[in-house]
């Protein structure tokens, strides 16, 4: 670069007059190569910007015409038609802002304050969003729309529970998962006042004849060899379970025919055979992971999803609820003892599966709100034989096994039925649900009364100390043995307990709103069918 005094430098569109001028060499620039394609590529050439020295205006020989700058660029031949054309493009609108119209009045007669919220917790903002979502679910009109909103989001890691398990001594765990207080050796006092002697004589002979046919006459060789002995194949267990289910179904038919004339609630009851019962809930438990090796403090509890799957041989449903045994304010409901299980069920062998949560209490909801209250359920004792076959030995915990079976099935069934009435696991029930349970194989009988007082165990909504209650009669034999086509040692008390449960009739609740969170369904028929097919898939 060389500096000369009193020179003028001309740029592309301006002329700068200075005492000293910088004279530069020829500068070349290239435009984007991607703009020229095909044959026009060969016509591409350099565009040269020429900086020429202009005359000095102070020179006495300077003329005005010489001050005009020369054209510094030129267009190479063929390049004119190769340049891309600038086209106008219309950009579509992708965001539309509309002002939100608030219809609430600015002034009210009574002050309305927002709920107090503790922002000191780490997940306070997420909890605020969850509580808002719970209120949205609460306002939905039907059971199907509520559970569709809950279950169609994402699958959950769920502990898979059945009414029985292969493990030994898990009664305390089932009581803790369902928050159930067990009362052994007696039924509620209200059942002791029922006089059922006249019905026992009417039912004794038909029930024994049904037991004789299903357990000893049909498949006589099979039952003679396998009764009280280990099963050798899964096929034999299925045959035995089918025989017990058929027996319980026939006993229920006999009871309905004999007792139905004087007890209309039995004659009008809806009956479900081999019904599939499923329900889910949340339980605040220790995490299913390993211990925290990096911190001295233990890991905090988490809200674990629990999925129950069971089967009942027979289910009876009525159009009115059974009267509760105790009220919510009773000390037995508020402060009864419930065992505490310190571990997550996964660590004790219960499987965990990632799946969508399901609720089907043995029947489908049709939106008509008819015959959706529990009355009685018959369960088979075959799982005891099944555990012996799968484990290869028997355990001395048959009483605990049967009690745990009744607790889990009673809670799972009533939890699903409460969902039919609009009480999701995020809304606490407003009145108790009561039902009866019978577990039998024809010879051994156990009778239970279960009352559901709470089912919301999620840490966000668990704000009460209610306990669920289960009364157990204990195990009793209908007969001691069957010899020479005769029953030996027939026990009438087993039939008495069965009749007492059946004669407990439902009563209308005039002062109780049975479905406080359900309203009229205003959805289109297409939406109803879509949600119904999704929940039944």
Automatic annotation (TrEMBL):
<keyword id="KW-0689">Ribosomal protein</keyword>
<keyword id="KW-0687">Ribonucleoprotein</keyword>
<protein>
    <submittedName>
        <fullName>28S ribosomal protein S30-like isoform X1</fullName>
    </submittedName>
</protein>
<dbReference type="InterPro" id="IPR039982">
    <property type="entry name" value="Ribosomal_mL65"/>
</dbReference>
<dbReference type="InterPro" id="IPR010793">
    <property type="entry name" value="Ribosomal_mL37/mL65"/>
</dbReference>
<dbReference type="GO" id="GO:0005762">
    <property type="term" value="C:mitochondrial large ribosomal subunit"/>
</dbReference>
<dbReference type="GO" id="GO:0003735">
    <property type="term" value="F:structural constituent of ribosome"/>
</dbReference>
<dbReference type="Pfam" id="PF07147">
    <property type="entry name" value="PDCD9"/>
</dbReference>
<keyword id="KW-0496">Mitochondrion</keyword>
<dbReference type="GO" id="GO:0006412">
    <property type="term" value="P:translation"/>
</dbReference>
């Amino acid at each position: 670069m060389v500096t000369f005094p009193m020179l003028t430098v001309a740029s592309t569109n301006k002329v700068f007059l200075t005492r000293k001028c910088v004279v530069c060499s020829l500068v070349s620039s290239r435009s984007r190569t991607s703009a020229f394609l095909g044959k026009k590529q060969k016509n591409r050439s350099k565009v040269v910007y020429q900086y020429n020295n202009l005359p000095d205006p102070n020179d006495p020989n300077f003329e005005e015409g010489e001050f005009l700058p020369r054209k510094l660029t030129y267009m190479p031949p063929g390049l004119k038609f190769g340049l891309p054309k600038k086209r106008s493009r219309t950009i579509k609108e992708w965001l539309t802002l509309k002002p939100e119209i608030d219809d609430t009045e600015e002034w009210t007669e009574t002050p309305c304050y927002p709920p107090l919220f503790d922002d000191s917790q780490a997940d306070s903002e997420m909890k605020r969003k969850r509580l808002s979502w719970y209120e949205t679910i609460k306002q939905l009109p039907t059971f199907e729309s509520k559970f569709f909103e809950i279950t169609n989001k994402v699958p959950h890691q769920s502990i898979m529970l059945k009414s029985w398990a292969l493990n030994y001594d898990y009664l305390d765990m089932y009581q803790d998962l369902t928050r159930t207080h067990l009362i052994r050796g007696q039924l509620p006092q209200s059942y002791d006042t029922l006089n059922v002697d006249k019905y026992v004589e009417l039912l004794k002979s038909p029930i024994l004849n049904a037991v004789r046919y299903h357990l000893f006459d049909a498949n006589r060789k099979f039952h003679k060899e396998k009764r009280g002995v280990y099963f050798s194949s899964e096929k034999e267990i299925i045959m035995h379970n089918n025989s017990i289910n058929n027996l319980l179904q026939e006993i229920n038919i006999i009871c309905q025919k004999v007792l139905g004339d004087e007890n209309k609630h039995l004659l009008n009851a809806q009956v479900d055979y081999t019904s599939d019962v499923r329900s889910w809930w949340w339980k605040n438990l220790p995490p299913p992971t390993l211990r925290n090796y990096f911190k001295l403090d233990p890991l905090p509890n988490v809200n674990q999803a629990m999925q129950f799957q069971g089967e009942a041989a027979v289910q009876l449903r009525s159009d009115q609820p059974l009267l509760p045994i105790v009220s919510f304010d009773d000390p037995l409901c508020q402060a009864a003892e419930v065992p505490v299980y310190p571990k997550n069920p996964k660590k004790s062998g219960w499987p965990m599966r990632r799946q969508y949560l399901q609720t089907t209490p043995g029947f489908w909801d049709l939106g008509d709100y008819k015959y959706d209250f529990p009355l009685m359920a018959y369960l088979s004792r075959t799982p005891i034989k099944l555990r012996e076959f799968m484990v290869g030995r028997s355990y001395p915990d048959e009483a605990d096994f049967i009690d745990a079976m009744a607790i889990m099935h009673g809670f799972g069934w009533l939890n699903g039925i409460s969902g039919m009435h609009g009480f999701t696991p995020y809304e606490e029930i407003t009145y108790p649900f009561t039902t009866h349970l019978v577990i039998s194989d024809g010879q051994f009988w156990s009778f239970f009364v279960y009352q559901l007082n709470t089912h919301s165990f999620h840490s966000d909504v668990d704000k009460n100390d209610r306990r669920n209650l289960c009364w157990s009669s204990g195990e009793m034999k209908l007969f001691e043995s069957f010899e020479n086509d005769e029953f030996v040692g027939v026990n009438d008390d087993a039939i008495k307990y069965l009749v007492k449960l059946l004669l407990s009739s439902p009563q209308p609740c005039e002062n109780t709103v049975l479905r406080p969170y359900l309203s009229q369904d205003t959805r289109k028929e297409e939406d109803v069918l879509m949600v119904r097919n999704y929940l039944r898939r």
